[in-house]
Amino acid sequence: MTDHRTLAVVSAGLSEPSSTRLLADRLAGAAAAALPGETGIVTVELRDHAHDLASNLVTGFAPAALRGAVEAVTGADGLIAVTPIFNASYSGLFKTFFDVLDKDALEARPVLLGATGGTARHSLALDFAVRPLFAYLRARPVPTAVYAASEDWASPGLLTERIAAAGGELAAAVADRPPVTREDPYADPTPFEELLAG
C-alpha cells in the first residue's frame, strides 16, 4: 500500500495575489517533494474565513465552512503556517484561527513556520512571536523557519535554499510519525434505550 500523507497549509495573507500565499505554496511544494509516497495538500486561505472566525469567537460555534477548514488542519500529518508580519508580530487573523482550535488539536504535530514582510528587520518575529504560539499549542515546529521580505522575491537564490531546507525538515518530521488517524465520534453510538435508562 502506498504511503499517503496530508499537509495542511494555513495562509493568512490578506491581498490577492498574496506574497504570503506564494511563500506558503512554495513551502508546501518543497515538503511534498521531499516526502516519500503520495502527498495530499489542503490549503486554507484565512481571508475566506474572516467573518466565520469572528462569529466563532463570539458564539462558540464554527459555521460549516470554517468547521471544514479546522478539520482539514487538525487532521493533517503536517502543518505549514504562514503569516504576514504586522507591528512586529503575526496578524490578528492568523492568531484568531489558532484561537478557535481545541487546545490539544496540534499536540506533537510537525509544523513549518513562515512569514512575509516588507523589510528584513521583521524576520525575528518568527522566533519571538510565532514560534512561542506553537510551543504553547504543544506542536513541534521544525528548526528552520522561513521569512521572506520584499527584496527576497527579487533575488530568490537564498530564499529558495531556505525553502528547500525547511521543506526537507518538515518532510523528515512527518515521515518519522505514524499517519494521523481520525476516529469518527459517531461510529459506535450509544443505543437510545441505554441513554433513557440512565
From TrEMBL:
Keyword Transit peptide (UniProt): no
All residue ranges annotated as the NADPH-dependent FMN reductase-like domain in the record: 7-153
Signal peptide: none
InterPro entries reported in the protein's UniProt record: CE1759_FMN_reduct, Flavoprotein-like_sf, FMN_Rdtase-like_dom, NAD(P)H-dep_FMN_reductase
EC number: 1.-.-.-
Gene Ontology MF, one: oxidoreductase activity
Keyword Flavoprotein appears in the UniProt entry: yes
Sorted UniProt keywords: Flavoprotein, FMN, Oxidoreductase
PANTHER family, sorted: FMN REDUCTASE (NADPH)
Name of this protein: CE1759 family FMN reductase
Source organism of this protein record: Actinomadura rugatobispora
